[in-house]
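Module 6 notes. Inverse folding takes a fixed backbone as the condition and produces residue identities as the prediction. Think of it as a translation problem where the source language is geometry and the target language is the twenty amino acids. Below is one complete input and output pair. Work through it position by position during the lab.
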C-alpha cells in the first residue's frame, strides 16, 4: 500500500457525447515572497530536470536535533501558528538524523515513500498523528515523529492530486517555481489522510519520535492546544538554557529569533490575562 490510494480515474479518458474536455488545471499562484529554504541549492543552467533534482536530493536531509527543534518552535509568533505548521511522519523502524526523500531508502525493493520500494522523490507527512502512525509497512515496530514545516516555507494546494507519485512529471516545474511542499487531496473530506508532500527537505525539521508495537497499535491523538501552547512557551527558555550550558553564546540569527519570541510571548500572555 502506498502512502495514498492511487486515483482510479483515467485522466486520459474523454467523456462520450458532446461534453467538451476540461482545460488543464492551472498552477496555483504563488505569493511574492520566495522560500527562504532554497538557498542551499545552486542555480542550474537551463531548467530543472529529474536528473538535476535527484542529484540534489541525494545530498540533503531535513534538519534534526532537539535544540534546533526548540529554535524552530520559538520562530512562530503564537501557539496557533505552530499548530498550523506541525505535521507527523510514520515509519517502520526509526529515522537516524534527518528525513530523506523516499528513493534514497529503497533497498532490494523494500523501503521508499510507501514502504514497498516506490521511488518517491519527496517526503510524505500527515496532519493527523494516528494516520501517520499507520504507515509502517511490514515492520513489527514503528515510530511516529513530529515534523515542523518551517516558518515562511512556500506551500501550495493541489486537491486534484491523490498520490505523491502523480507529481513526478510535474516535479521539474514545481522545483523551478521554488515550491517547498504541497497539500494534496481534498482535506475537507472526512476520509482524507491530510497528506503534505515535501519536495524540499531543508524546509522541515524532525523532532523526537515515539516508538510503538504495530500489533494491536494504540490510537494516537494529536496534541491538545494546551500541550502545543506549553511546548511553544517553553521553547525559548529551553533553547536559552542549552546555549548557556554550551558556553559559546547564541548566534546572531538565533538572537533575533529569541528576542522576537520573548516579545510574542509577552503579548500572548497579556492577551490571555485580559
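Target side of the pair, the amino acids:
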Amino acid at each position: 500500500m502506498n502512502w495514498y490510494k492511487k486515483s482510479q480515474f483515467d485522466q486520459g479518458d474523454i467523456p462520450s457525447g458532446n461534453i467538451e474536455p476540461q482545460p488543464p488545471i492551472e498552477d496555483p499562484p504563488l505569493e511574492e515572497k520566495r522560500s527562504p529554504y532554497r538557498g542551499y541549492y545552486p542555480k542550474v543552467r537551463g531548467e530543472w530536470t529529474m536528473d538535476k533534482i535527484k542529484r540534489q536530493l541525494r545530498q540533503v536531509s531535513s534538519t534534526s536535533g532537539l535544540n534546533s527543534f526548540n529554535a524552530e518552535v520559538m520562530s512562530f509568533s503564537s501557539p496557533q501558528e505552530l499548530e498550523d505548521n506541525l505535521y507527523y511522519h510514520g515509519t517502520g523502524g526509526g529515522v537516524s538524523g534527518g528525513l530523506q526523500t523516499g528513493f534514497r531508502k529503497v533497498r532490494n525493493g523494500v523501503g521508499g515513500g510507501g514502504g514497498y520500494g516506490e521511488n518517491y522523490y519527496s517526503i510524505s507527512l500527515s496532519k493527523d498523528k494516528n494516520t501517520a502512525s499507520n504507515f509502517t509497512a511490514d515492520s513489527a515496530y514503528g515510530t511516529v515523529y513530529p515534523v515542523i514545516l518551517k516558518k515562511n516555507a512556500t506551500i501550495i494546494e493541489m486537491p486534484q492530486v491523490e498520490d505523491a507519485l502523480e507529481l513526478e512529471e510535474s516535479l521539474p516545474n514545481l522545483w523551478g517555481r521554488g515550491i517547498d511542499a504541497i497539500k494534496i487531496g481534498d482535506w475537507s473530506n472526512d476520509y482524507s489522510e491530510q497528506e503534505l508532500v515535501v519536495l524540499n527537505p531543508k524546509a522541515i525539521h524532525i523532532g523526537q519520535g515515539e516508538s510503538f508495537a504495530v500489533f494491536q497499535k494504540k490510537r494516537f491523538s494529536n496534541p491538545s492546544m494546551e500541550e502545543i501552547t506549553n511546548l511553544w512557551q517553553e521553547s525559548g527558555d529551553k533553547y536559552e538554557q542549552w546555549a548557556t550550558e554550551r558556553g559559546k553564546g547564541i548566534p546572531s540569527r538565533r538572537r533575533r529569533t529569541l528576542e522576537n519570541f520573548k516579545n510574542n510571548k509577552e503579548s500572548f500572555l497579556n492577551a490571555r490575562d485580559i
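Reference fact for the lab report: The two ends are 51 Å apart (CA to CA).
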